[in-house]
Protein backbone atom coordinates (compact mmCIF):
# COMPACT_ATOMS: atom_id res chain seq x y z
CA UNK A 1 0.00 0.00 0.00
CA UNK A 2 2.89 2.34 0.74
CA UNK A 3 6.64 2.25 1.15
CA UNK A 4 6.37 0.16 4.27
CA UNK A 5 6.58 -2.81 1.90
CA UNK A 6 10.30 -2.11 1.73
CA UNK A 7 10.67 -3.23 5.28
CA UNK A 8 7.93 -5.79 5.45
CA UNK A 9 9.99 -8.58 6.95
CA UNK A 10 11.39 -6.20 9.50
CA UNK A 11 7.91 -4.93 10.11
CA UNK A 12 6.61 -8.42 10.72
CA UNK A 13 9.32 -9.15 13.20
CA UNK A 14 8.31 -6.09 15.17
CA UNK A 15 4.68 -7.07 15.35
CA UNK A 16 2.78 -9.53 17.36
CA UNK A 17 -0.35 -11.25 16.17
CA UNK A 18 -3.21 -10.90 18.65
CA UNK A 19 -6.58 -12.58 18.44
CA UNK A 20 -8.94 -9.67 19.06
CA UNK A 21 -12.33 -10.34 17.53
CA UNK A 22 -13.70 -13.70 18.52
CA UNK A 23 -15.78 -15.56 16.00
CA UNK A 24 -19.16 -14.65 17.62
CA UNK A 25 -18.18 -10.97 17.50
CA UNK A 26 -17.33 -11.18 13.82
CA UNK A 27 -20.49 -13.10 13.07
CA UNK A 28 -22.49 -10.49 14.96
CA UNK A 29 -20.77 -7.74 13.01
CA UNK A 30 -21.60 -9.13 9.59
CA UNK A 31 -25.16 -10.14 10.45
CA UNK A 32 -25.65 -6.67 11.87
CA UNK A 33 -24.21 -5.06 8.75
CA UNK A 34 -26.45 -7.14 6.49
CA UNK A 35 -29.56 -6.57 8.60
CA UNK A 36 -29.04 -2.81 8.81
CA UNK A 37 -28.43 -2.55 5.07
CA UNK A 38 -31.60 -4.45 4.23
CA UNK A 39 -33.64 -2.69 6.90
CA UNK A 40 -32.52 0.71 5.65
CA UNK A 41 -33.20 -0.01 1.98
CA UNK A 42 -36.58 -1.66 2.55
CA UNK A 43 -37.50 1.03 5.07
CA UNK A 44 -36.77 3.84 2.64
CA UNK A 45 -38.90 2.05 0.07
CA UNK A 46 -41.79 1.70 2.51
CA UNK A 47 -41.58 5.44 3.16
CA UNK A 48 -41.24 6.34 -0.52
CA UNK A 49 -42.56 3.56 -2.74
CA UNK A 50 -41.19 4.43 -6.14
CA UNK A 51 -42.00 1.32 -8.14
CA UNK A 52 -45.44 1.29 -9.72
CA UNK A 53 -46.31 -2.12 -11.11
CA UNK A 54 -48.91 -2.40 -13.87
CA UNK A 55 -51.78 -4.83 -13.85
CA UNK A 56 -54.21 -5.81 -11.18
CA UNK A 57 -53.59 -5.79 -7.45
CA UNK A 58 -53.73 -9.58 -7.17
CA UNK A 59 -50.85 -9.91 -9.65
CA UNK A 60 -48.48 -7.87 -7.50
CA UNK A 61 -47.26 -7.95 -3.94
CA UNK A 62 -44.31 -5.57 -3.95
CA UNK A 63 -45.08 -3.51 -0.86
CA UNK A 64 -46.27 -6.62 0.94
CA UNK A 65 -43.01 -8.44 0.17
CA UNK A 66 -40.85 -5.52 1.18
CA UNK A 67 -42.72 -5.02 4.43
CA UNK A 68 -42.41 -8.73 5.14
CA UNK A 69 -38.63 -8.67 4.59
CA UNK A 70 -38.37 -5.51 6.67
CA UNK A 71 -40.06 -7.42 9.48
CA UNK A 72 -37.96 -10.55 9.06
CA UNK A 73 -34.70 -8.63 9.16
CA UNK A 74 -35.96 -6.53 12.04
CA UNK A 75 -36.28 -9.68 14.10
CA UNK A 76 -32.87 -10.91 12.92
CA UNK A 77 -31.44 -7.51 13.91
CA UNK A 78 -33.05 -7.73 17.35
CA UNK A 79 -32.00 -11.32 18.00
CA UNK A 80 -28.47 -10.46 16.91
CA UNK A 81 -28.31 -7.50 19.29
CA UNK A 82 -29.62 -9.62 22.13
CA UNK A 83 -26.93 -12.17 21.41
CA UNK A 84 -24.32 -9.41 21.44
CA UNK A 85 -25.59 -8.24 24.83
CA UNK A 86 -24.92 -11.71 26.12
CA UNK A 87 -21.46 -11.65 24.54
CA UNK A 88 -20.53 -8.48 26.41
CA UNK A 89 -20.62 -10.74 29.42
CA UNK A 90 -19.27 -13.92 27.88
CA UNK A 91 -16.73 -12.53 25.43
CA UNK A 92 -13.07 -11.58 25.75
CA UNK A 93 -11.66 -8.28 26.93
CA UNK A 94 -12.07 -6.61 23.52
CA UNK A 95 -15.76 -7.39 23.31
CA UNK A 96 -16.69 -5.22 26.27
CA UNK A 97 -18.12 -1.73 26.46
CA UNK A 98 -17.41 0.05 29.73
CA UNK A 99 -18.51 3.64 29.52
CA UNK A 100 -18.66 3.99 33.28
CA UNK A 101 -14.90 3.60 33.76
CA UNK A 102 -12.79 6.61 34.59
CA UNK A 103 -10.16 5.60 32.03
CA UNK A 104 -12.81 5.64 29.36
CA UNK A 105 -13.40 9.38 29.65
CA UNK A 106 -9.68 10.14 29.79
CA UNK A 107 -9.17 8.08 26.69
CA UNK A 108 -12.08 9.84 25.02
CA UNK A 109 -10.35 13.21 25.41
CA UNK A 110 -7.02 11.79 24.21
CA UNK A 111 -8.66 10.16 21.18
CA UNK A 112 -10.52 13.34 20.33
CA UNK A 113 -7.22 15.23 20.43
CA UNK A 114 -5.63 12.65 18.14
CA UNK A 115 -8.40 12.87 15.57
CA UNK A 116 -8.24 16.66 15.60
CA UNK A 117 -4.47 16.47 15.02
CA UNK A 118 -3.70 18.02 18.38
CA UNK A 119 -1.54 15.04 19.27
CA UNK A 120 0.52 12.90 16.94
CA UNK A 121 -0.01 9.49 18.39
CA UNK A 122 -3.20 7.86 19.51
CA UNK A 123 -3.58 5.86 22.66
CA UNK A 124 -2.90 2.20 22.02
CA UNK A 125 -5.83 -0.09 21.54
CA UNK A 126 -6.22 -3.43 20.00
CA UNK A 127 -9.95 -3.22 20.51
CA UNK A 128 -11.95 -0.04 20.22
CA UNK A 129 -10.79 3.33 21.39
CA UNK A 130 -13.10 5.36 23.62
CA UNK A 131 -14.53 7.43 20.77
CA UNK A 132 -15.40 4.32 18.77
CA UNK A 133 -17.01 2.79 21.85
CA UNK A 134 -19.07 5.92 22.38
CA UNK A 135 -20.19 5.90 18.74
CA UNK A 136 -21.24 2.25 18.95
CA UNK A 137 -23.13 3.04 22.11
CA UNK A 138 -24.96 5.95 20.48
CA UNK A 139 -25.51 4.63 16.96
CA UNK A 140 -25.91 0.91 17.48
CA UNK A 141 -27.30 0.63 20.98
CA UNK A 142 -29.26 3.81 21.65
CA UNK A 143 -30.46 4.38 18.08
CA UNK A 144 -31.07 0.65 17.78
CA UNK A 145 -33.20 0.68 20.93
CA UNK A 146 -35.23 3.59 19.60
CA UNK A 147 -35.70 1.92 16.22
CA UNK A 148 -36.76 -1.32 17.88
CA UNK A 149 -39.18 0.41 20.23
CA UNK A 150 -40.84 2.50 17.54
CA UNK A 151 -40.73 -0.29 14.96
CA UNK A 152 -42.24 -2.97 17.16
CA UNK A 153 -44.83 -0.51 18.46
CA UNK A 154 -46.01 0.04 14.87
CA UNK A 155 -45.92 -3.68 14.09
CA UNK A 156 -47.86 -4.52 17.24
CA UNK A 157 -50.80 -2.47 15.96
CA UNK A 158 -51.51 -5.27 13.51
CA UNK A 159 -52.39 -7.57 16.38
CA UNK A 160 -53.93 -5.52 19.19
CA UNK A 161 -54.03 -7.64 22.30
CA UNK A 162 -51.10 -9.76 21.09
CA UNK A 163 -47.78 -10.34 22.79
CA UNK A 164 -45.95 -7.49 21.05
CA UNK A 165 -48.83 -5.16 21.79
CA UNK A 166 -48.76 -5.97 25.47
CA UNK A 167 -45.04 -5.21 25.57
CA UNK A 168 -44.80 -2.20 23.26
CA UNK A 169 -48.35 -0.84 23.31
CA UNK A 170 -47.33 2.02 25.61
CA UNK A 171 -45.00 3.53 23.00
CA UNK A 172 -47.72 5.01 20.77
CA UNK A 173 -49.55 6.97 23.49
CA UNK A 174 -46.08 7.78 24.85
CA UNK A 175 -45.35 9.73 21.67
CA UNK A 176 -48.92 11.07 21.54
CA UNK A 177 -49.89 9.10 18.47
CA UNK A 178 -48.50 6.83 15.82
CA UNK A 179 -47.75 9.69 13.45
CA UNK A 180 -44.83 10.86 15.58
CA UNK A 181 -43.66 7.30 16.15
CA UNK A 182 -43.50 6.72 12.41
CA UNK A 183 -41.80 10.03 11.78
CA UNK A 184 -39.10 9.40 14.39
CA UNK A 185 -38.53 5.89 13.06
CA UNK A 186 -37.96 7.37 9.62
CA UNK A 187 -35.69 10.14 10.91
CA UNK A 188 -33.51 7.90 13.05
CA UNK A 189 -33.06 5.47 10.19
CA UNK A 190 -30.75 8.05 8.67
CA UNK A 191 -28.33 7.68 11.57
CA UNK A 192 -27.26 4.34 10.07
CA UNK A 193 -25.81 5.56 6.74
CA UNK A 194 -24.27 8.41 8.71
CA UNK A 195 -22.64 5.90 11.03
CA UNK A 196 -21.58 3.69 8.13
CA UNK A 197 -19.76 6.57 6.46
CA UNK A 198 -17.82 7.44 9.60
CA UNK A 199 -17.20 3.81 10.44
CA UNK A 200 -15.74 2.91 7.03
CA UNK A 201 -13.60 6.03 6.95
CA UNK A 202 -12.15 5.44 10.40
CA UNK A 203 -11.49 1.76 9.78
CA UNK A 204 -9.65 2.29 6.51
CA UNK A 205 -7.77 5.29 7.90
CA UNK A 206 -6.59 3.25 10.88
CA UNK A 207 -5.53 0.36 8.67
CA UNK A 208 -3.58 2.62 6.34
CA UNK A 209 -1.86 4.70 9.01
CA UNK A 210 -0.94 1.95 11.44
CA UNK A 211 -0.82 -1.04 9.13
CA UNK A 212 -2.27 -3.12 11.97
CA UNK A 213 -4.72 -5.26 10.02
CA UNK A 214 -7.86 -3.47 11.21
CA UNK A 215 -9.83 -4.18 8.02
CA UNK A 216 -8.94 -7.86 7.76
CA UNK A 217 -9.40 -8.35 11.49
CA UNK A 218 -13.14 -8.31 11.06
CA UNK A 219 -12.76 -11.37 8.84
CA UNK A 220 -9.99 -13.37 10.51
CA UNK A 221 -10.08 -11.85 13.99
CA UNK A 222 -6.36 -10.96 14.19
CA UNK A 223 -4.77 -7.60 14.72
CA UNK A 224 -1.06 -6.81 14.70
CA UNK A 225 0.38 -5.02 17.65
CA UNK A 226 3.82 -3.42 17.74
CA UNK A 227 6.07 -5.49 19.98
CA UNK A 228 6.68 -3.74 23.26
CA UNK A 229 3.77 -1.34 22.88
CA UNK A 230 2.22 -3.70 25.33
CA UNK A 231 -1.54 -3.68 25.46
CA UNK A 232 -1.71 -7.42 25.39
CA UNK A 233 -0.28 -8.71 28.63
CA UNK A 234 2.34 -11.26 27.58
CA UNK A 235 5.44 -9.30 26.64
CA UNK A 236 7.46 -12.42 26.02
CA UNK A 237 6.40 -13.64 22.64
CA UNK A 238 5.85 -17.24 21.66
CA UNK A 239 7.74 -18.13 18.52
CA UNK A 240 4.79 -19.19 16.41
CA UNK A 241 3.14 -15.83 16.81
CA UNK A 242 6.02 -14.05 15.17
CA UNK A 243 6.18 -16.27 12.16
CA UNK A 244 2.83 -15.88 10.48
CA UNK A 245 1.30 -12.74 9.21
CA UNK A 246 -1.23 -12.75 6.47
CA UNK B 1 -68.77 4.43 39.49
CA UNK B 2 -72.47 4.96 40.05
CA UNK B 3 -74.86 2.07 40.50
CA UNK B 4 -78.02 2.34 38.49
CA UNK B 5 -79.82 0.15 41.00
CA UNK B 6 -79.52 2.83 43.62
CA UNK B 7 -81.91 5.12 41.80
CA UNK B 8 -85.57 4.39 42.49
CA UNK B 9 -87.60 5.05 39.40
CA UNK B 10 -90.93 3.77 38.22
CA UNK B 11 -90.42 0.81 35.87
CA UNK B 12 -92.18 2.76 33.13
CA UNK B 13 -88.93 4.70 32.95
CA UNK B 14 -87.04 1.73 31.55
CA UNK B 15 -86.08 1.98 27.93
CA UNK B 16 -88.19 -1.05 27.03
CA UNK B 17 -91.35 0.39 28.59
CA UNK B 18 -90.71 3.67 26.92
CA UNK B 19 -90.17 2.02 23.53
CA UNK B 20 -93.31 -0.11 23.86
CA UNK B 21 -95.35 2.96 24.69
CA UNK B 22 -94.09 4.52 21.47
CA UNK B 23 -95.33 1.52 19.48
CA UNK B 24 -92.02 -0.34 19.00
CA UNK B 25 -92.65 -4.09 18.75
CA UNK B 26 -90.75 -6.52 20.93
CA UNK B 27 -89.27 -8.03 17.80
CA UNK B 28 -87.78 -4.68 16.84
CA UNK B 29 -86.54 -4.16 20.36
CA UNK B 30 -84.70 -7.50 20.27
CA UNK B 31 -83.26 -6.64 16.88
CA UNK B 32 -81.90 -3.44 18.34
CA UNK B 33 -80.30 -5.30 21.24
CA UNK B 34 -78.64 -7.78 18.89
CA UNK B 35 -77.39 -4.95 16.73
CA UNK B 36 -75.97 -3.14 19.74
CA UNK B 37 -74.13 -6.29 20.85
CA UNK B 38 -72.67 -6.75 17.37
CA UNK B 39 -71.58 -3.14 17.27
CA UNK B 40 -69.73 -3.53 20.54
CA UNK B 41 -68.01 -6.68 19.34
CA UNK B 42 -69.72 -8.76 22.04
CA UNK B 43 -70.75 -12.36 21.51
CA UNK B 44 -74.30 -13.67 21.38
CA UNK B 45 -74.29 -14.38 25.10
CA UNK B 46 -74.26 -10.64 25.73
CA UNK B 47 -77.59 -10.09 23.97
CA UNK B 48 -79.80 -11.31 26.87
CA UNK B 49 -77.80 -9.09 29.21
CA UNK B 50 -78.49 -6.08 27.04
CA UNK B 51 -82.16 -7.05 26.79
CA UNK B 52 -82.39 -7.38 30.54
CA UNK B 53 -80.60 -4.12 31.17
CA UNK B 54 -82.85 -2.18 28.83
CA UNK B 55 -85.96 -3.84 30.27
CA UNK B 56 -85.18 -3.22 33.90
CA UNK B 57 -82.84 -0.31 34.27
CA UNK B 58 -84.09 3.24 34.25
CA UNK B 59 -83.20 5.29 31.25
CA UNK B 60 -79.86 6.81 31.84
CA UNK B 61 -79.80 10.54 32.48
CA UNK B 62 -77.32 12.18 30.13
CA UNK B 63 -76.08 15.73 30.09
CA UNK B 64 -74.55 16.73 26.80
CA UNK B 65 -72.30 19.79 26.89
CA UNK B 66 -71.29 21.82 23.87
CA UNK B 67 -68.09 23.70 24.63
CA UNK B 68 -65.61 25.12 22.12
CA UNK B 69 -66.65 23.17 19.03
CA UNK B 70 -68.51 23.31 15.72
CA UNK B 71 -71.34 20.82 16.50
CA UNK B 72 -70.22 18.44 13.75
CA UNK B 73 -70.06 15.72 16.41
CA UNK B 74 -73.67 16.45 17.41
CA UNK B 75 -74.67 16.30 13.76
CA UNK B 76 -72.94 12.95 13.42
CA UNK B 77 -74.55 11.71 16.64
CA UNK B 78 -78.00 12.40 15.15
CA UNK B 79 -77.14 10.33 12.11
CA UNK B 80 -76.60 6.95 13.70
CA UNK B 81 -76.65 4.67 10.70
CA UNK B 82 -79.40 2.14 11.19
CA UNK B 83 -82.87 3.71 11.23
CA UNK B 84 -83.76 1.64 14.24
CA UNK B 85 -80.77 2.92 16.12
CA UNK B 86 -81.25 6.45 14.90
CA UNK B 87 -84.82 6.44 16.04
CA UNK B 88 -84.30 4.80 19.36
CA UNK B 89 -80.90 5.76 20.55
CA UNK B 90 -81.73 9.29 21.55
CA UNK B 91 -84.60 7.95 23.59
CA UNK B 92 -82.76 5.10 25.17
CA UNK B 93 -81.07 7.68 27.27
CA UNK B 94 -82.85 10.48 28.99
CA UNK B 95 -81.12 13.37 27.27
CA UNK B 96 -81.80 16.03 29.84
CA UNK B 97 -79.63 18.77 28.45
CA UNK B 98 -78.27 19.34 24.93
CA UNK B 99 -78.26 22.88 23.67
CA UNK B 100 -78.81 22.24 19.95
CA UNK B 101 -81.72 19.82 20.54
CA UNK B 102 -83.64 20.79 23.62
CA UNK B 103 -86.84 22.75 23.38
CA UNK B 104 -86.17 24.74 26.51
CA UNK B 105 -83.96 27.81 26.41
CA UNK B 106 -82.28 30.24 28.72
CA UNK B 107 -83.03 30.01 32.44
CA UNK B 108 -85.43 27.13 31.90
CA UNK B 109 -82.76 25.00 30.21
CA UNK B 110 -80.16 25.76 32.83
CA UNK B 111 -82.69 24.84 35.50
CA UNK B 112 -83.28 21.45 33.84
CA UNK B 113 -79.56 20.79 33.88
CA UNK B 114 -79.25 21.82 37.51
CA UNK B 115 -82.13 19.54 38.43
CA UNK B 116 -80.55 16.51 36.75
CA UNK B 117 -77.23 17.22 38.36
CA UNK B 118 -78.90 17.43 41.75
CA UNK B 119 -81.36 14.52 41.45
CA UNK B 120 -78.91 12.07 39.88
CA UNK B 121 -75.75 13.20 41.57
CA UNK B 122 -73.02 10.65 40.86
CA UNK B 123 -75.26 8.71 38.44
CA UNK B 124 -75.61 10.65 35.24
CA UNK B 125 -73.40 10.31 32.22
CA UNK B 126 -71.70 13.44 30.98
CA UNK B 127 -71.03 13.69 27.26
CA UNK B 128 -68.73 16.55 26.33
CA UNK B 129 -68.39 17.88 22.84
CA UNK B 130 -65.75 20.56 22.40
CA UNK B 131 -62.75 21.58 24.42
CA UNK B 132 -62.38 23.59 27.58
CA UNK B 133 -60.11 26.61 27.18
CA UNK B 134 -57.61 27.87 29.70
CA UNK B 135 -56.28 31.01 27.99
CA UNK B 136 -56.91 34.29 29.86
CA UNK B 137 -59.04 32.56 32.46
CA UNK B 138 -61.11 30.71 29.88
CA UNK B 139 -62.86 33.80 28.48
CA UNK B 140 -62.70 32.58 24.87
CA UNK B 141 -65.70 30.32 25.30
CA UNK B 142 -68.47 31.36 27.66
CA UNK B 143 -72.00 30.00 27.82
CA UNK B 144 -74.67 31.67 29.95
CA UNK B 145 -72.02 33.91 31.44
CA UNK B 146 -69.83 31.04 32.62
CA UNK B 147 -66.59 29.86 31.09
CA UNK B 148 -66.63 26.52 29.29
CA UNK B 149 -64.01 25.21 31.69
CA UNK B 150 -66.05 26.00 34.80
CA UNK B 151 -69.20 24.52 33.23
CA UNK B 152 -67.28 21.32 32.55
CA UNK B 153 -65.80 21.18 36.04
CA UNK B 154 -69.19 21.72 37.59
CA UNK B 155 -70.97 19.09 35.50
CA UNK B 156 -68.15 16.54 35.81
CA UNK B 157 -68.14 16.77 39.59
CA UNK B 158 -71.39 14.78 39.87
CA UNK B 159 -71.02 12.56 36.82
CA UNK B 160 -70.56 8.80 36.94
CA UNK B 161 -68.32 8.92 33.89
CA UNK B 162 -67.38 11.39 31.20
CA UNK B 163 -67.39 10.68 27.50
CA UNK B 164 -65.11 13.08 25.63
CA UNK B 165 -66.94 13.07 22.33
CA UNK B 166 -65.03 14.18 19.27
CA UNK B 167 -61.49 15.35 18.67
CA UNK B 168 -62.09 18.76 20.30
CA UNK B 169 -62.77 17.01 23.56
CA UNK B 170 -60.03 14.39 23.21
CA UNK B 171 -57.17 16.44 21.76
CA UNK B 172 -58.39 20.03 21.25
CA UNK B 173 -58.61 19.46 17.47
CA UNK B 174 -58.49 22.49 15.16
CA UNK B 175 -58.52 25.19 17.82
CA UNK B 176 -55.76 23.35 19.66
CA UNK B 177 -53.48 23.47 16.60
CA UNK B 178 -50.36 25.57 16.79
CA UNK B 179 -50.24 28.28 18.14
CA UNK B 180 -53.43 27.44 20.07
CA UNK B 181 -54.34 31.03 20.97
CA UNK B 182 -57.20 30.08 23.31
CA UNK B 183 -55.17 27.37 25.04
CA UNK B 184 -57.79 24.76 24.25
CA UNK B 185 -57.03 21.53 26.11
CA UNK B 186 -58.44 18.00 26.08
CA UNK B 187 -61.22 17.18 28.55
CA UNK B 188 -58.81 14.81 30.29
CA UNK B 189 -56.68 17.73 31.37
CA UNK B 190 -59.59 19.32 33.24
CA UNK B 191 -61.48 16.24 34.44
CA UNK B 192 -59.00 14.23 36.45
CA UNK B 193 -61.13 12.55 39.10
CA UNK B 194 -63.72 10.77 36.90
CA UNK B 195 -63.23 8.02 34.32
CA UNK B 196 -62.90 9.65 30.90
CA UNK B 197 -63.65 7.74 27.71
CA UNK B 198 -62.09 9.28 24.61
CA UNK B 199 -64.18 9.02 21.47
CA UNK B 200 -62.06 10.93 18.97
CA UNK B 201 -62.86 11.88 15.40
CA UNK B 202 -63.82 15.01 13.58
CA UNK B 203 -66.60 14.00 13.83
CA UNK B 204 -66.60 10.50 15.33
CA UNK B 205 -68.77 7.78 13.87
CA UNK B 206 -72.21 7.97 15.48
CA UNK B 207 -72.32 4.25 16.30
CA UNK B 208 -69.34 4.69 18.58
CA UNK B 209 -71.16 6.91 21.03
CA UNK B 210 -74.37 4.91 20.96
CA UNK B 211 -72.37 1.73 21.43
CA UNK B 212 -70.47 3.22 24.33
CA UNK B 213 -73.68 4.31 26.05
CA UNK B 214 -75.31 0.88 25.56
CA UNK B 215 -72.24 -0.74 27.04
CA UNK B 216 -72.29 1.51 30.06
CA UNK B 217 -75.99 0.96 30.57
CA UNK B 218 -75.69 -2.83 30.29
CA UNK B 219 -72.62 -3.52 32.33
CA UNK B 220 -72.54 -0.50 34.64
CA UNK B 221 -68.94 0.11 33.72
CA UNK B 222 -67.02 1.84 30.99
CA UNK B 223 -66.06 -0.33 28.03
CA UNK B 224 -62.58 -1.75 27.66
CA UNK B 225 -60.27 0.99 26.41
CA UNK B 226 -57.21 0.93 24.15
CA UNK B 227 -53.85 2.17 25.36
CA UNK B 228 -54.92 5.60 24.08
CA UNK B 229 -58.03 5.64 26.27
CA UNK B 230 -60.55 4.90 23.49
CA UNK B 231 -63.23 2.18 23.37
CA UNK B 232 -61.41 -0.87 22.11
CA UNK B 233 -64.32 -2.21 20.12
CA UNK B 234 -64.00 0.72 17.71
CA UNK B 235 -60.49 2.10 17.94
CA UNK B 236 -58.14 -0.84 18.22
CA UNK B 237 -57.31 -1.05 14.52
CA UNK B 238 -55.84 1.44 12.13
CA UNK B 239 -57.95 2.63 9.22
CA UNK B 240 -55.16 1.19 7.07
CA UNK B 241 -55.57 -2.30 8.58
CA UNK B 242 -59.09 -2.71 7.25
CA UNK B 243 -58.99 -0.39 4.26
CA UNK B 244 -60.79 -1.45 1.12
CA UNK B 245 -57.81 -0.14 -0.89
CA UNK B 246 -55.31 -2.13 1.18
CA UNK B 247 -54.75 -4.66 -1.60
CA UNK B 248 -53.35 -1.86 -3.75
CA UNK B 249 -51.03 -0.79 -0.96
CA UNK B 250 -49.65 -4.30 -0.63
CA UNK B 251 -49.35 -4.59 -4.39
CA UNK B 252 -47.38 -1.35 -4.47
CA UNK B 253 -49.90 0.44 -6.68
CA UNK B 254 -50.27 4.07 -5.69
CA UNK B 255 -52.19 7.05 -6.98
CA UNK B 256 -49.66 9.72 -7.97
CA UNK B 257 -52.13 12.51 -8.70
CA UNK B 258 -55.87 12.84 -8.30
CA UNK B 259 -56.61 12.54 -12.03
CA UNK B 260 -54.21 9.81 -13.07
CA UNK B 261 -55.01 6.32 -14.23
CA UNK B 262 -54.37 4.85 -10.77
CA UNK B 263 -56.95 7.19 -9.23
CA UNK B 264 -59.51 5.94 -11.76
CA UNK B 265 -58.60 2.36 -10.89
CA UNK B 266 -59.11 3.01 -7.19
CA UNK B 267 -55.46 2.49 -6.20
CA UNK B 268 -54.00 3.25 -2.78
CA UNK B 269 -53.94 6.91 -1.70
CA UNK B 270 -50.80 6.55 0.47
CA UNK B 271 -48.78 8.92 -1.69
CA UNK B 272 -51.63 11.42 -1.81
CA UNK B 273 -51.17 12.02 1.90
CA UNK B 274 -53.40 9.32 3.34
CA UNK B 275 -52.98 9.13 7.12
CA UNK B 276 -54.73 5.77 7.31
CA UNK B 277 -51.49 3.97 8.33
CA UNK B 278 -51.21 6.03 11.51
CA UNK B 279 -54.88 6.55 12.35
CA UNK B 280 -56.77 4.40 14.81
CA UNK B 281 -60.46 4.50 13.93
CA UNK B 282 -63.34 2.33 12.79
CA UNK B 283 -64.06 4.15 9.49
CA UNK B 284 -62.96 1.27 7.28
CA UNK B 285 -65.08 -1.25 9.18
CA UNK B 286 -68.19 0.55 10.40
CA UNK B 287 -68.16 3.14 7.61
CA UNK B 288 -70.51 6.10 7.53
CA UNK B 289 -74.15 6.75 6.81
CA UNK B 290 -75.40 3.22 7.14
CA UNK B 291 -72.25 1.76 5.63
CA UNK B 292 -72.49 3.75 2.42
CA UNK B 293 -68.88 4.84 2.29
CA UNK B 294 -66.01 6.53 4.11
CA UNK B 295 -63.41 9.03 2.88
CA UNK B 296 -60.87 6.61 1.41
CA UNK B 297 -63.53 4.52 -0.27
CA UNK B 298 -64.85 7.62 -1.98
CA UNK B 299 -61.41 8.62 -3.23
CA UNK B 300 -60.15 11.02 -0.61
CA UNK B 301 -57.09 10.33 1.56
CA UNK B 302 -57.68 9.95 5.28
CA UNK B 303 -56.70 13.12 7.16
CA UNK B 304 -56.26 11.26 10.44
CA UNK B 305 -58.91 13.29 12.24
CA UNK B 306 -59.03 10.99 15.26
CA UNK B 307 -55.33 11.39 16.02
CA UNK B 308 -53.73 13.87 18.40
CA UNK B 309 -52.67 17.12 16.76
CA UNK B 310 -53.88 15.98 13.36
CA UNK B 311 -54.23 19.56 12.29
CA UNK B 312 -50.52 20.14 12.89
CA UNK B 313 -49.49 17.04 10.96
CA UNK B 314 -50.23 18.75 7.69
CA UNK B 315 -50.38 19.38 4.72
CA UNK B 316 -53.20 16.90 4.23
CA UNK B 317 -52.38 16.10 0.62
CA UNK B 318 -48.67 15.52 1.06
CA UNK B 319 -47.25 12.01 1.30
CA UNK B 320 -46.67 10.99 4.92
CA UNK B 321 -42.91 10.67 4.53
CA UNK B 322 -42.64 14.15 2.98
CA UNK B 323 -44.43 16.01 5.73
CA UNK B 324 -42.06 18.12 7.79
CA UNK B 325 -41.37 16.42 11.09
CA UNK B 326 -43.30 18.17 13.83
CA UNK B 327 -40.37 18.16 16.21
CA UNK B 328 -37.68 19.45 13.87
CA UNK B 329 -39.67 21.17 11.14
CA UNK B 330 -37.97 19.36 8.25
CA UNK B 331 -38.65 16.37 6.06
CA UNK B 332 -36.71 13.43 7.57
CA UNK B 333 -35.28 12.36 4.21
CA UNK B 334 -33.95 15.85 3.53
CA UNK B 335 -32.42 15.99 7.01
CA UNK B 336 -30.86 12.55 6.48
CA UNK B 337 -29.40 13.28 3.06
CA UNK B 338 -28.23 16.68 4.25
CA UNK B 339 -26.50 15.24 7.30
CA UNK B 340 -24.93 12.57 5.13
CA UNK B 341 -23.67 15.24 2.72
CA UNK B 342 -22.16 17.31 5.51
CA UNK B 343 -20.57 14.20 7.02
CA UNK B 344 -19.23 13.22 3.59
CA UNK B 345 -17.57 16.61 3.16
CA UNK B 346 -16.23 16.28 6.70
CA UNK B 347 -14.75 12.88 5.93
CA UNK B 348 -13.12 14.15 2.75
CA UNK B 349 -11.67 17.14 4.57
CA UNK B 350 -10.41 14.97 7.40
CA UNK B 351 -8.93 12.49 4.97
CA UNK B 352 -7.14 15.31 3.14
CA UNK B 353 -5.86 16.73 6.42
CA UNK B 354 -4.72 13.26 7.47
CA UNK B 355 -2.90 12.80 4.21
CA UNK B 356 -1.15 16.15 4.52
CA UNK B 357 -0.29 16.03 8.22
CA UNK B 358 0.67 12.37 8.46
CA UNK B 359 2.68 12.72 5.24
CA UNK B 360 4.60 15.61 6.75
CA UNK B 361 5.16 13.65 9.96
CA UNK B 362 6.59 10.78 7.97
CA UNK B 363 8.90 13.12 6.09
CA UNK B 364 10.10 14.51 9.38
CA UNK B 365 10.74 11.03 10.72
CA UNK B 366 12.75 10.12 7.64
CA UNK B 367 14.68 13.34 7.89
CA UNK B 368 15.65 12.86 11.49
Summarize the structure.
With 246 residues, chain A is mainly α.
Protein architecture, described:
- The complex is a heterodimer of chains A (246) and B (368).
- Chain A is mostly helical and 246 residues long.
- Chain A contains 11 helices and 2 strands, in the order αβαααααααααβα.
- Chain A has helices spanning 8-13, 23-47, 62-90, 102-115, 130-156, 163-168, 171-174, 178-189, 191-210, 214-220, 239-243; strands at residues 15-19, 222-226.
- Chain A has a two-stranded antiparallel sheet.
- In chain B, the strands form 2 sheets. A 5-stranded parallel sheet of chain B has the order 2-1-3-6-7, sandwiched between helices. Chain B has a two-stranded antiparallel sheet with strand order 4-5.
- Chain B has helices spanning 15-21, 26-39, 46-56, 72-77, 83-92, 106-119, 148-157, 167-171, 187-190, 206-219, 232-235, 246-251, 261-265, 283-286, 332-367; strands at 60-66, 93-98, 124-129, 142-143, 146-147, 159-165, 196-199.
- The termini of chain B are far apart.
- Chain B folds into 2 domains: 4-232, 3-Layer(aba) Sandwich (Rossmann fold), CATH 3.40.50.700; 237-323, Cytochrome-c3 hydrogenase, C-terminal domain (Cytochrome-c3 Hydrogenase, Chain A, domain 2, Irregular), CATH 4.10.480.10.
- Chain B is an alpha/beta fold and 368 residues long.
- The model of chain B is unreliable at 1-12 (pLDDT under 50).
- In chain B, 41% of the residues lie in helices and 9% in strands.
- Chains A and B meet through helix 3, helix 8 and helix 9 of A and helix 12 and helix 15 of B.
Helices, strands, pairings?
The complex is a heterodimer of chains A (246) and B (368).
Chain A: H1 8-13, E1 15-19, H2 23-47, H3 62-90, H4 102-115, H5 130-156, H6 163-168, H7 171-174, H8 178-189, H9 191-210, H10 214-220, E2 222-226, H11 239-243
Antiparallel strand pairs in A: 1-2
Helix pairs in contact in A: 2-3, 3-5, 5-8
Chain B: H1 15-21, H2 26-39, H3 46-56, E1 60-66, H4 72-77, H5 83-92, E2 93-98, H6 106-119, E3 124-129, E4 142-143, E5 146-147, H7 148-157, E6 159-165, H8 167-171, H9 187-190, E7 196-199, H10 206-219, H11 232-235, H12 246-251, H13 261-265, H14 283-286, H15 332-367
Parallel strand pairs in B: 1-2, 1-3, 3-6, 6-7
Antiparallel strand pairs in B: 4-5
Helix pairs in contact in B: 2-3, 3-10
